[in-house]
Specification:
Number of strands: 3
Order of helices and strands: HEEHHHE
Strand content: 25-35%
Largest sheet: 3 strands, antiparallel
Distance between the termini: 28 Å
Shape: elongated
Helix content: 25-40%
Structural class: alpha+beta
Strand order of the largest sheet: 1-2-3
Length: 114
């Protein structure tokens, strides 16, 4: 999302909670346990900027794509850092949904995951 769109979104929804949604998957045929996972974190308006800054620090970038990150050791370290940050007891974020679906080996695109 561009900074302009983000600023418009913040202005329009200044007092509302926001759900940050992430989906990730591993469809590599070399792996025996392929998966698709969808997660969301509900963030109160007062915590949005703090959370966003922490996520950028944990990802070591303003760009993040979990599926890409999990393909490298460095990316897995960053993913772990982000999960640890989100799980911090001092934070006020609430995980509202997390769905894990194992994908059959013959489903090389993950489209059949239910």
């Amino acid at each position: 999302m561009t900074d302009t769109l983000m600023n418009m979104f913040y202005a329009t929804n200044a007092e509302r909670s926001v759900a940050y949604i992430d989906e990730s998957y591993d469809m590599d045929p070399a792996h025996t346990r392929n998966f698709y996972i969808l997660s969301a974190v509900l963030v109160e308006s007062a915590q949005r900027d703090v959370l966003r800054s922490g996520l950028v620090r944990g990802a070591a970038s303003s760009y993040w794509h979990t599926s890409e990150a999990l393909r490298t050791e460095e990316g897995r370290v960053h993913a772990h850092t982000l999960l640890t940050y989100l799980a911090d007891d001092a934070g006020s974020e609430q995980c509202v949904i997390s769905v894990l679906q194992h994908v059959q080996q013959q489903d090389d695109t993950g489209e059949l995951a239910e």
